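Aggregate trends can hide what the representation actually does to any particular protein. In the encoding step, the backbone of a single protein was reduced to a row of integers, each denoting a local shape. The record that follows shows the chain in one-letter code together with its fold in token form.

***
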Amino acid sequence: MAETSEQYNDVIETCRSLFINKMKDYGSAWRILRLPSLTDQIFIKAQRIRGLQQNKEQRVDEGQESEFIGIINYCVMALVQLEKGVVEQPDLSLEDATQLYDEKIAETKQLMLDKNHDYGEAWRDMRVSSLTDLILQKILRVKQIEDNKGKTLVSEGIGANYQDMINYAVFALIHLTPSNK
């Protein structure tokens, strides 16, 4: 599992770097997005990945990797919004946003390590297409919970679903890394 932890860190470093660079370009404009808007952004990315996996022709020169990175970063934003709430104007400095990013990723990685221990790294034998489908399923679950005003009877909440989507996307990116094939 040490290898998984190291590979996880490598993927997250790529995602984190993009997040920081986008913060430098746009600031924390994403702080105005409500959770359903973030969920829809994640949905769009996952649908595009599924399309890329199913279609013979690709018309936009961006592959699955950039979309999985987007899923990870939008899920982190959603976790921040869950904790801090939505604002009317951007309110986070680069340093504060990066600290929140790191906190959410640390919590999510710990969840992955705990589950990975219990599941015996079963994800390593999964297909990227299955990970995509699981992300889409989680998105549909989140949409239903949002429609239920955040209430669940016996199921985990929205945050746990965003964390699972992050972890599935990280697993997909590990699978897609040429040195890991």
Q: What stands out?
A: The chain has a mean pLDDT of 94. The radius of gyration is 16 Å. The longest helix spans residues 94-119.
